[in-house]
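Hi all, long-time lurker, first post. I run a small reading group and we've been trying to get comfortable going from sequence to structure in the token notation. Rather than ask abstract questions, I figured I'd post a concrete chain and ask someone more experienced to write out its structure so we can walk through it together at our next meeting. Sequence below, copied exactly:
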Amino acid sequence: MSSIDIPSDVLDAMAAPPEDREPIVRQELAVSLYREGYLSFGKARELAGLSKAAFHRLLGDRKIQRHYTEADLALDVAYGQD
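-- Answer (accepted) --
Happy to help. Here is the structure in token form:
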């Protein structure tokens, strides 16, 4: 596993309780990387530490469009026909 060093003064400057800071940073990073297309839904969800439903809600709350292509739709339709 790789890690990112965040200066303690930056974390200390966050207006959140200390125990909430890491989850907030992970979720914000996950949302941003997903929105920009750098991470898939599954990997972003994993980074955020959330269930599928919770990550869907988070994206919905932020009004972030899901990455769902015509190829994804074709796969889903084919799966549904089996």
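A couple of things your group might point at:
Residues 18-35 form the longest helix (18 residues).
The chain is about 65% helix and 0% strand.
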